[in-house]
Amino acid sequence: MTQTQQKPRSTGVLNRVLRYMLRFYGPVFLAVILCILVSAVATVVAATFPQTLVDDYIVPMLSSGSRDFSGLAADIVKLAFVMLAGVVAGFGYNRIMVNISQGTMRHLRDDLFRSMEALPIQYFDTHAHGDIMSVYTNDVDTLRQLISQSIPQVINSGITMVATLVTMLLLNPFLTIISVATAIVMLLVTSRFSKLSGKYYVRQQRDLGIVDGFIEEMLDGQKVVKVFCHEQAAMDDFHKVNEALRESANKANRYANLLMPINANIGWLSYAFVAIVGALLAINGLAGVTLGTVVTFVGLNKSFTQPITQVSQQVNFVVTAAAGAQRVFELMDQKPEEDEGYVELVNAKEGADGQLARVPSAPTCGPGGIPTRRTAPLLTPSWREAWSLTMWTSDIRRIRSYSTTSACGPSRGRRSPS
Q1: Is 194 left (phi over 0), alpha (psi -120 to 50) or beta?
Q2: How would you classify the pairing of strands 343-345 and 374-376?
């Protein structure tokens, strides 16, 4: 496999995961987006309340000496209801996403198993069983974190950033420039680190499958290992695959774990810079900046940069899920077996209903003593009976397929009847 083939197509894979989820839970996911929208609006309302508190109540009351808190109490009650709605919406979309993620995993495992059952035996002869098992366990499980947490977190962060940006532009465009410039730097850092860690997450999932396949093979053949004193050689081979997994996992998590602290520090630098510039403008009465504007804007700045930090925390889950989903879809996209098997029947005949029956008195030789056989596809609904029948009535000579089990017909199971 070339390096180009190994390069993850994260965007395409994640889009396919999202389309797969929406195929089963499209209307429900719209409810999730509405709940996220309510939660984001509640966050922005809470962030802008300090300006109302300072400019409309604290400063006037300090200047006039008034003790009338009725207006402030009414605004606090309104804020409490808004925050309560945000909490309920946040709980709602997280609870719904649990159902969506688990349901999507169930459908994915069903489709994956259905696709696997249609694969030719050659596929299982050329792929380690433990590697295939790793697709069902490790790779599918990576999508659980992606669907249940990462996707709603990214949507929530995007909506919050847009709502906060609009509020900041209305409040003070000059200070908004500082926040936007900081956000651009954080996005560039996130993009750079994601590219560095992405290829190693793909290697990590591949090496994890290799380790699982090696362990499964050694466990199945442990008696052979003991008989031929192959323990040391097996340990040496395991050390090689285990070291490869350690190296790929180390490099993948090294860049991903550095991303969140770097973005957090950039966010705090933006917070301090906005506070300093805003204070200077408020003291000198420039750009219409007041004390309430500064207090509100530093909160909005935090609400604007914090989603980027939160998304950067999800980057390792997103990239891991993209690598896992790539392996899942590779197995699902394998070409199924084309079953055209047939058998040659001796001393048997096929009835009008498709059932096979034994005919002990049927002639086995034609004129001149030449053996005669009737070739017929084995497409009877009672395939278990037909299989056991052909064991003593059929002469199975030729099978146009990879394995003898394909004689059960294209719509039959692949296992021998028990």
Answers
A1: alpha
A2: antiparallel
Residue 400 confidence (pLDDT) above 80: no
Q: Which pLDDT tens digit goes with each residue over 42-100? A: 888 888 887 777 777 777 777 777 777 777 888 888 888 989 999 999 899 888 988 89
Residue range 210-235: average pLDDT? 80
Q: In three state form, how does the secondary structure of 75-142 look?
A: HHHHHHHHHHHHHHHHHHHHHHHHHHHHHHHHHHHHHHHHHHHCCCHHHHHHCCHHHHHHHHHHHHHH
Report the distance separating Cα 17 and Cα 11, nearest Å.
10
Give burial (CB, 10 Å; 0-12/13-18/19+) of 418.
exposed
Contact 321, 142 (CB under 8 A): yes
With tokens 């002469």, the residue in question is 395
As given in the structure block, the two tokens for residue 355 are 């059932």
Cβ burial 238-272 (10 Å sphere, 16+ → b, else e): eeebeebbeebbebbbebbeebbeebbebbeebbe
- pTM, two decimals, is 0.62
Q: How far apart are CA 386 and CA 380, in angstroms?
A: 7
Residue 104 identity (one-letter amino acid): T
Q: Hey, is 42 helix, strand or coil? A: helix
Question: What pLDDT is attached to residue 345?
Answer: 61
What is the rounded end-to-end Cα distance, in angstroms, of the chain?
40
Q: CB within 8 A of 220, min separation 6: which ones?
A: 129
Cα 57 to Cα 81: distance, rounded to the nearest angstrom: 20
Element (H, E) at 338: none
What percentage of the chain reaches a pLDDT higher than 70?
A: 80
Closest by CA position to 36, among listed 83, 81, 80, 91: 91
Q: Are 167 and 44 in contact (CB under 8 A)?
A: yes
- Residue pLDDT, tens place only, 277-319: 888 888 887 777 777 788 888 888 888 888 887 777 777 777 7
Does residue 346 sit in helix, strand or coil?
coil
Contact 41, 79 (CB under 8 A): no
